[in-house]
Amino acid sequence: MKSYLIVSAALLGGLAHASDPCDCFPVCGCGHDGPSTAPISVMGDHLHVKGEWMFSLRHMYMDMDGMYAGSNSVSPASVHAAGYLVSPTRMTMEMSMLGAMYAPSDDLTLMAMISYIQSDMDHVIDPGAGMLIAANAGNNTFGTRSVGVGDLKLTALLRLKDEGRHQLHGGFGISLPTGSISNSDILPGPGGRLSRQLPAAMQPGSGTFDLLPSLTYLYEGDGWTGGLQARGVFRTHENHHDYRLGHRGEIDAWAGCQPLSWLSVTSGLGFSWDGELEGTQADVAQVPPMPPGRITVPTAFGENHGGMRLDAILGFNLQIVEAQRIGVDLRLPLWQDLNGHRLGQDLTATLGWTLAF
Ligand SMILES: [Cu+2]
Q1: In degrees to the nearest 10, what's the CA dihedral of 285, 286, 289, 290?
Q2: pTM, to two decimals
Q3: What is the CA(28)–ligand 1 centre distance, in A?
Q4: So what's the architecture of 2-356 in CATH?
Q5: Domain ranges of the chain
Q6: How many A from CA of 53 to the centre of ligand 1?
């Protein structure tokens, strides 16, 4: 991770000194003169000019590999020793996002986003849990998959300040529970391998109306631009499976420059905080019928959700064709401190394309 930081710092430093002052346009990287420096995974980073539309397509790949307790990586055996019959070992999530933006005025941009999500989770059963292994057709590992449409997000971005090098806008959004929270897959348990409700982490939707406030500050320096975005997700009630996901807060900070008229390079940091899941997950078993004193799987319990994480961000934006942008960014965790026993974050990669007219 240190080498990554040195390389990206050297890259940005070298570009800033070697090239002419960058023509960076922090207002909008879509349809203006050159790509913005905001990482493609940051949404709502810009406003549009009156009457302008933008469509976007993003694909995000997230890899969670290995269990954590706090900030330490732990083995499945230690998860089993904590009482759980089953330990997750890995989860991948792929999310395709379709977005639209429209500006009814120079000070207001409306944004809508819908996603399609595929999640896969691998598990290992405690070698001592013979009955459960027998119920799993003699195998001590199993995988689950969940696919579906996610929650629809609607946001209004309002300009708060536009003064020389400084720009500030606020986001007021709502997430509508269009995603399923009732997806099931084949799981071992009483009666063998049967279709059962998957835990919250595998559901495409939150099942709740969520508030999505955000605040974005953009700065235009000499030869570089930077940005800072703080955003939150507040769950307003419990869903019909008797739980709500944790509230969420995130801050992304980035700085970048445009070494070529069609290329921008960005480096930054992302901090995220997730709260614990509240409530019980109806239909997800917490206590197995046998053996006594054991519990099922960490994902069935609220205290094993959430935590804090600091990511390094490295991104590129290309604008080869007028009004279109292709962006890619990587997020790699520098540090994470997670609640209870849960999978740690490994890598998040986002590839996106935007078209403005
Ligand atoms: Cu846009």
Answers
A1: 130
A2: 0.87
A3: 7
A4: Beta Barrel (2.40)
A5: 2-356
A6: 7
